[in-house]
Amino acid sequence: MNLNSAFGLADLSAEPGCKVAARTNITIKGVDVSLPVFLVNGAHDGPTLVVTAGIHGGEYPCVEAAARLGRTLDATELHGQMIIIPSANPVAFKARSIYITPVDGLNLNRQFPGDPDGTFTRAWAAWLMENVITKGDMYIDMHGGDMIEALVPFVSYNITGDEGVDSTASAMADAYGIRAVLVKDDPGGLSGTTYAAAARAGVPALLTEAGGQGVWHEDEVDILQNGVRRVMSQFNMYPAISDQGEKAQRLSGWSWLSSDTEGLFYCKVGIGDMVEEGQDLGRVADIFGNTLQELVSPASGEILFLVTSLAMNEGDPLMAIAYD
Q: Which residue range forms the structural domain that includes residue 298?
């Protein structure tokens, strides 16, 4: 970072030692996007950290955490630069949409690195990838359970095979202060996600998750924003906070259960429950009570993620079981 240089995104610019909080207006595939941005140009030399939230429009704790982080950071204390996008999918946020962007029905977090010649969501992913995500030396994408999801707070990163990227991502995950750390030993990563695409582009990246079910609570906001502050402190960007968080516990993977059919979901477990391979976890039934799918645990581990909706569509995720 050049301490004498302004720091910009689109038509916004922050001078050294200053913070800009404003919207930039972008038109993608005929859709007007009013993107809220915090640009924080530190008064001291250091790395660039990019933080996004609200990739999914109905995940609220992360949106508030990113907005609160942007409002409270002091540029005169910052070593480096930050881009904070508290609502990275404003179209979905305004629509209170679950999973998808209403314009074309696509899940933004399955479209990265995007395609500028694709439909709106794919083109928007490409714009974010080029103009936001790859501008960082490090990247954190904050999420949470969507409106029909509950989960245990966790962070995840992808092993890419690039020693520098992987070691930095590991240090970021340890510093974040959430107990469950899912390490995905998969250079390809989860298809189309922000953090997998960033890592493949050479930017160490975390996915962080807390909260869900269409509500937000102060403790969930604190989990997410305090985690970012711990990462900043770990890399000497900002003064440390007193809350050290939880000790990271590495998890080597997870197994997913999905619905084979449309129906009603009757679950017998809750988030954080420990289950055994072969255990009865519930069922999907029709409206008359006839069982359509019996759910049996494919592995022993902890229920990390759970859909809480009664209504279920064919192919919908039901739950995830994480294991060491």
A: 257-323
